[in-house]
Amino acid sequence: MTEPLLAVQQLQTSFHTQAGEVQSVRGVSFTVREGDIVGIVGESGSGKTITAKSILRLIPSPGVIKGGVVQFRGEDMLKMSERRLREVRGNQIAMISQDPMTALNPVVKIGTQLVEVLRRHRKLSRAEARQKAIELLRQVGITSPEKRIDQYPHEFSGGMRQRVMIAMALSCEPDLLIADEPTTALDVTIQAQILSLMKRLSDTTKTSILLITHDLGVVAQVCTRIIVMYGGLIMEEGTVEDIFERPQHPYTKGLLRSIPRVQEGERERLMAIDGSPPDLLHPPTGCPFMERCAVATERCHELPLYVEAGPSHRALCWYAGQEEASVGDRLANGSGTSIKIALGVTDETAVHEEVGGHEHE
């Protein structure tokens, strides 16, 4: 088996505040292989974005990466010099920020911002970089790119700005693309277009994607593997089929129960997860989900070890794999799969159209 493109081992990141140390990431380990689309899901504050920013060493003060190893193509990014890190950022690893309006400079034309990236990393002339920028805008589905390239960010809609960010991220043909909530605040139609675009670009360019989101429907559409985070730790990791059809951790099952079902003739109240996420100023010594877990016991006061539930499936729970019927089976209820329920569709044709359809303005 080939070495992973990205290997994160025991990553720990904290923020030192006046109230004390906030332990945002508390020992996270995972890998991303070439061509993978890995989704990181979880509630707000679970550590998803901080994990991604720690990989690129973009943690703002008073944050600090306390420990761990982040190997990219065998090289530890946490030990790289600033000069070497600047060569990797944007060139070999690119990131799409959560809010494209704040990520783009509002007083600089779109073309200027794209050309700057290309000239810095690809060493192109100004004319060559401009032509490449126009091609990139066309590639991500922006009409009349020759005109649009000379416009400012405020002249684009939210979905179009997100396409510009994708074009900028892909401009240097990175090996790894980190997308932090790329569909946040976009309407459903634009969200589907952006996800379809990312999936198609990954298929054609073989770029690996680390997709951060709180939306299980999003990861069901495009991801090959899913990481479920909570309280700064990975609760469960597996393939899309593992997570949706054979969930092992009570937190994952709770997330699945909260997905609205779209089936004709059925009405059912959503099941919320009671309680609040743990206080990471004083993180629990045991399972971070214990206080909200319906099946917790005294044993859960001790932090569990990962239980291997399959070749690529693990869960941080003492009781993983002990339930006979999975939440995925109960959600499916004998008609269709829980993955389709997460997508909000009821037939394979609809899934194909949602994921593989052409882009429209």
TrEMBL record:
Acyltransferase listed as a keyword: no
Keyword annotations: ATP-binding, Cell membrane, Membrane, Nucleotide-binding, Transport
Predominant subcellular localization, coarse grouping: membrane
One term of GO molecular function: ATP binding
GO cellular component entries: plasma membrane
Topology with respect to the bilayer: Peripheral membrane protein
Pfam families in alphabetical order: ABC_tran (PF00005), oligo_HPY (PF08352)
A Gene Ontology biological process term: peptide transport
Domain ABC transporter: 6-256
Keyword Magnesium: no
UniProt subcellular location: Cell membrane
Family to which the UniProt record says this protein belongs: Belongs to the ABC transporter superfamily.
Matching NCBIfam families: oligo_HPY
Listed name of the protein: ABC transporter ATP-binding protein
Source organism (scientific name): Paenibacillus agilis
